[in-house]
Structures are given as structure tokens and as C-alpha cells.
């Protein structure tokens, strides 16, 4: 392990970090990721102008991510007491996780749709997606929320846990900052096409293995043999049609596991974007948002169970 921690310790700290996230949720004030976002905005405004925008984007990524990752690693190293080091790793993981946030932002949308409150559902959905929701139907709102849950389950939970296993707290920090920069700069617009290219490609690389482990987890947790086969087939057939090499496997397998149809047309920046179909089955409705959340929660439990079981077997083997 790059973190220098034993796998048993890593597994226990993973459980602690997830429990802290579910208990406390996001820090209301002075959240480190919010501060990082403000720093990224300042860097982009300063460097995303003039020529050589790709090179400037690489420089901006390095200035945003590398010093803070090094600071996180230095902090862990400076804390010579093992208990203090464990606490630092756990807090870093907690600040990087977003499982409670996914629940708190998406389940109210399902509740609003259950109460036939479309205006409130549209308002709540607009907080979590960039697509236009001003005149969205229940099906369109459900698609937006369920897709966000499935994809961000990987970005805000499983990818973070993967890199925590690899490199402890600093690994989680590195991954979440890279993922945040992709969300901020990784657009194919005239402003970000060159400048954000490095951020998008680095996030693709860091997310490549976690995304496929997430997709496999969604397949394994699909109900019944038929559901598992459907999720696998959707992954293999539909993922290549998506521009994102990581969102495709995650969302297609997740939609297949749920047995609903996602994807399709959506309005971005006033223009209709026709996206490939995800999943197989009837069009998703409001209640499917809670099913998507349960899939993410069960996948988290699966990852923790596998980590703890592996740690126990390793301890037994060395006993």
C-alpha cells in the first residue's frame, strides 16, 4: 500500500469514513472541497486566456492538485503517533466522500414527484444537473436524478474508496480534486475545449479501474440471474456509444440493474442533445430514484464487506 497502512487498518478506516459521512454529511461551512473549488476558479480565470491553452490547462491542474496532495501527505507523515495518523486518514476520506450528499439531494426529488409537485421537483433537480429542467416531465426529472446517482456513486463514493485503498487519505484527496476539476473544466465548449482537456483525460485515467469495478458491482447486485444478465449485456452493448469512457459502463450497467430506460434526449444550454439509450425496460418514474439510491447504498456495503473480509483473511493467513 502506498499509504504505508496495513490492509486491516485501511478496511477499518474505510468503514469509519463512510459512517462519518452518513452521520455528519457535508460540512456546512468551510468545506475543503468548496475552498478548492474557489481556488480552481481563480486559477482558471487567470490562466485560461491567450494562446497555448492546453499547456496552460496542464499548468493549472498541477498548481491546483499537486501542492494540496503533497500537503495532505506531509500532514500524515508529520503525525508520528499512529492514532493521529489514522484520524487524519479518516477525516480526509470523510471530507472526500459524498454518499450522504447524494441521498440528501436526490431523495427529496423522489418525494416531490410522489406528491405531484413538479415545480419543486424541477427546482431540486436543477441543483444537481446542468441540463435544463424548467419544463421537464416526471420521466425527464427521474432520468436526470437516477443518472446522477449512478454516475456520482462512482465519482463521490467508489472511486474515492478505491484510491483510499491505494494511497490512504492523500489518495482520496488526489482523486476527488482531479474529479472536481473535470466537473469544472472538462467541457467541450470553446472556452474549455483545450484548457480543460488535461483535467478530463487525467480524470479518465484515475477513474478507469474504479468505474469498471462499480459497473461490475451494479451487475452483481442486480436482482436475480435475469437482472444480472441484463445489466451485463447493457454494459457491453451500450457503454461504447457514450463519449465518456467511464460514465458509459457505470450508467449502462446501473440502468440495466434497475431494469429501466435512462439516457435519451436532454436539453443543455438551450439545445436538445440526443444521447444513447441506457438500460432496458420501461421509462423510469419517480419511485426509481429511491431504487437507484438503494443500489448505490448496497454497492457501498458490498465494497466495505469485501474489504473487511479480505483484511480478515489476510490477518488469518499471517497468524
UniProtKB/TrEMBL annotation:
<dbReference type="GO" id="GO:0015420">
    <property type="term" value="F:ABC-type vitamin B12 transporter activity"/>
</dbReference>
<dbReference type="InterPro" id="IPR004485">
    <property type="entry name" value="Cobalamin_biosynth_CobD/CbiB"/>
</dbReference>
<keyword id="KW-1003">Cell membrane</keyword>
<protein>
    <recommendedName>
        <fullName>Cobalamin biosynthesis protein CobD</fullName>
    </recommendedName>
</protein>
<dbReference type="Pfam" id="PF03186">
    <property type="entry name" value="CobD_Cbib"/>
</dbReference>
<keyword id="KW-1133">Transmembrane helix</keyword>
<dbReference type="GO" id="GO:0048472">
    <property type="term" value="F:threonine-phosphate decarboxylase activity"/>
</dbReference>
<comment type="function">
    <text>Converts cobyric acid to cobinamide by the addition of aminopropanol on the F carboxylic group.</text>
</comment>
<comment type="similarity">
    <text>Belongs to the CobD/CbiB family.</text>
</comment>
<feature type="transmembrane region" description="Helical">
    <location>
        <begin position="6"/>
        <end position="24"/>
    </location>
</feature>
<dbReference type="GO" id="GO:0009236">
    <property type="term" value="P:cobalamin biosynthetic process"/>
</dbReference>
<keyword id="KW-0169">Cobalamin biosynthesis</keyword>
<dbReference type="GO" id="GO:0005886">
    <property type="term" value="C:plasma membrane"/>
</dbReference>
<keyword id="KW-0812">Transmembrane</keyword>
<keyword id="KW-0472">Membrane</keyword>
<feature type="transmembrane region" description="Helical">
    <location>
        <begin position="58"/>
        <end position="84"/>
    </location>
</feature>
<feature type="transmembrane region" description="Helical">
    <location>
        <begin position="295"/>
        <end position="314"/>
    </location>
</feature>
<comment type="pathway">
    <text>Cofactor biosynthesis; adenosylcobalamin biosynthesis.</text>
</comment>
<feature type="transmembrane region" description="Helical">
    <location>
        <begin position="156"/>
        <end position="175"/>
    </location>
</feature>
Amino acid at each position: 500500500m502506498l499509504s504505508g497502512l496495513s490492509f486491516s487498518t485501511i478496511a477499518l478506516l474505510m468503514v469509519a469514513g463512510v459512517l462519518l459521512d452518513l452521520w455528519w454529511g457535508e460540512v456546512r461551512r468551510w468545506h475543503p472541497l468548496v475552498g478548492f473549488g474557489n481556488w480552481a476558479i481563480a486559477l482558471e480565470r487567470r490562466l485560461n486566456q491567450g494562446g497555448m491553452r492546453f499547456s496552460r490547462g496542464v499548468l493549472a491542474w498541477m498548481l491546483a492538485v499537486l501542492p494540496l496532495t503533497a500537503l495532505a501527505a506531509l500532514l500524515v507523515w508529520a503525525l508520528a503517533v499512529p492514532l493521529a495518523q489514522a484520524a487524519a486518514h479518516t477525516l480526509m476520506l470523510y471530507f472526500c466522500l459524498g454518499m450522504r450528499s447524494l441521498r440528501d439531494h436526490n431523495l427529496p426529488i423522489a418525494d416531490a414527484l410522489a406528491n405531484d409537485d413538479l415545480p419543486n421537483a424541477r427546482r431540486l433537480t436543477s441543483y444537481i444537473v446542468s441540463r435544463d429542467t424548467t419544463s421537464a416531465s416526471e420521466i425527464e426529472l427521474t432520468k436526470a436524478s437516477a443518472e446522477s446517482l449512478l454516475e456520482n456513486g462512482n465519482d463521490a463514493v467508489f472511486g474515492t474508496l478505491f484510491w483510499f485503498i491505494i494511497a490512504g487519505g492523500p489518495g482520496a484527496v488526489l482523486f476527488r480534486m482531479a474529479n472536481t476539476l473535470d466537473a469544472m473544466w472538462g467541457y467541450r465548449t470553446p472556452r474549455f475545449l483545450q484548457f480543460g482537456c488535461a483535467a478530463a483525460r487525467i480524470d479518465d485515467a484515475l477513474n478507469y479501474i474504479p468505474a469498471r469495478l462499480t459497473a461490475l458491482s451494479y451487475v452483481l447486485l442486480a436482482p436475480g440471474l435475469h437482472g444480472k444478465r441484463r445489466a451485463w449485456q447493457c454494459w457491453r452493448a451500450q457503454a461504447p456509444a457514450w463519449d465518456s469512457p467511464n460514465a458509459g459502463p457505470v450508467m449502462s450497467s446501473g440502468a440495466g440493474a434497475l431494469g429501466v430506460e435512462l439516457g435519451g434526449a436532454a436539453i443543455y444550454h438551450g439545445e436538445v442533445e440526443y444521447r444513447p439509450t441506457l438500460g432496458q425496460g420501461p421509462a423510469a418514474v419517480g419511485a426509481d430514484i429511491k431504487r437507484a439510491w438503494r443500489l448505490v447504498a448496497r454497492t457501498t456495503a458490498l465494497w466495505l464487506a469485501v474489504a473487511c473480509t479480505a483484511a480478515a483473511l489476510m490477518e488469518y493467513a499471517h497468524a
